[in-house]
Specification:
Elements lengths: L3 H10 L5 E8 L7 E5 L5 E5 L17 E9 L5 E6 L9 H8 L3 H4 L13
Parallel strand pairs: 3-5
Antiparallel strand pairs: 1-2, 1-4, 2-3, 4-5
GO molecular function: nucleic acid binding
Pfam family, one: S1
InterPro entries: NA-bd_OB-fold, S1_domain
């Protein structure tokens, strides 16, 4: 785990929608939880199950998969960067509907700093 000052620095350098290449390191319960991703920043990356193909965990990226992810939000309780798959093959089929329903401000947040007013979490 990184120190608070390091976490603050990392957050200050990230932007919503920023694309990071990462390696899937854990898929603890396919179809249930999500995937953990090493994004090379010293903090954990995580893709929530709601952003992955629903009902088709065999279409999720497996451990060792190297692909691009976008910064979706940051976990407020501990250092963790929440990600969304950049590759549509790993993204839920109804992403546009999901955004419209649960995070309609997403398009306007892209490119903004993580620090500052926190976006609504899904």
């Amino acid at each position: 785990m990184v120190a608070e000052a390091e976490w603050e620095r990392i957050q200050g350098e990230l932007r919503f929608g920023q694309v990071l290449t990462g390696t899937v390191v854990r898929v603890p319960k396919p179809g249930v939880i999500g995937v953990f991703v090493d994004i090379g920043l010293g903090v954990e990356g995580f893709v929530d199950v709601v952003l992955l193909p629903r009902g088709r965990s065999e279409d999720w990226p497996v451990e060792g998969t190297v692909t691009d992810f976008e910064v979706w939000w940051v976990h407020s309780d501990h250092p963790q960067v929440r990600l969304k798959p950049a590759d549509p093959q790993y993204l839920c089929e109804d992403f546009a509907d999901f955004v419209a329903r649960y995070r309609p401000t997403w398009p306007s947040e892209i490119g903004k700093a993580l620090k500052g007013p926190k976006p609504s979490a899904p």
